[in-house]
Amino acid sequence: VGGDLDKAGVQCADVTVPLDYAAPRGRTITIAISRLKATDTRHRVGAILLNNGGPGGTALESPPYVREAMKEVGSRYDIIGFDPRFVGRSTPLDCGWPVSFTWFSAGAGRAGFDRQVALSKDLAEKCRATNASVLPHVTTRNTARDMDVIRGALGERKISYLGYSYGTYLGTVYTQMFPGRYDRMVLDGAVAPGDYGPRLLKGTVGENDRALAAWAAWVADHHAAYGLGRTRAAVLATIDRVMARAARAPLTIGTAPEVFRVDDTHIPMFLFMGIADDTDRSRASLAEQVSVLAEAAKGRPATPSPEFKEMLRFALSGADSPSGSAQMAIICGDVPAQRDPELYWRDIERIRAAHPVFGPLTENIGPCAFWNAPRENPTRVRHDAPALIVAATGDPRTTYRSSVTLHDQLPSSRLLTLKGANRHAVYGEYGNACVDTKVNRYLATGRLPSKDEVCVK
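The structure corresponding to this sequence follows.
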């Protein structure tokens, strides 16, 4: 996999699993796994599996970073990364898409929405044309089954688990399908099963508006560096002007041979991706991106940073088609979507006036509207699970409200709240010592706090 993993002492292997668990002697696929073995074998707890979210995120290279986050307790675990089925180095899925990302906005009017309908339909048809035989099996429930095969292959009676974002849904599904086979369960940035599906972003518009406003206030304090406005309102007005200009004609970003055309269906997505972390570094990165867009909106040459160019390439080209293909195949294979485009359009029009930036994004149509119906019913919570749920109050991706809902559905769980942060994924990622210490205490002892706990940014 790479020299860095070799240096860290990480072992890699493939685990063979059925494509279709209803036909276990039929076609097989491989799941790529990695293991950083416990060094404190005398006090070894067991194996902990990792999932970084997405869906479609890889965790094969994560064990060294997670061991660092786990501090002293990390040496007591075999830390297991794995690429879920059809992700990364596992058996791949590639629908040959012209884009690598599908969470676009409907834009400023009907024309943008109609383009999104056409794109979504085309993406779904491309997947059916190239991967019809495997699509019914690209699901979270099958990934949970794969996790249990990994557990058995490792010789573990139970596994522990650390999941972020979508990974919290995967972890919840595992607890419901295999209630006796897990030990310590950390779910960070949780999404309740009822909130997960093709319209995952629906209901997040308020959190995204607030995170954008907080970012705009920070940018106003750094007007000398970015020139986007001296007040929060002025910065938000700059965004409105850029979006209005992009709605009239696409903005030109970059120079030959790599030129990107950015329109009003793309800009909200870049903002959405940038506001899920309220650290100065991330806020500065988004400010630099918006500065480039603002220059392009004025008709001036606009050269993106290497980081922004990579994001443009990822979102607007098929450079990483397998990533987008796997993500949508999983979501569409898990939960059925509304089929009628007019239902989406009516939702967009209802929300547009109050939430002009993110409303047309969070309510927009996607490929799942044109996908075949899922083979299995969506997972619902029917068993309690003693998990530690970690959530930031201002999370704009998987909302704090969704974490509270999952906590309510799992009465023996505990909720660890980080107050005052607009952040998606906290433990080991954000640098909050209070959160990290409490999670590591749970991983060390296996004992949940006696009551819900709160940390402050």
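The domain at 3-92+136-196+383-456 is CATH 3.40.50.1820 (Rossmann fold).
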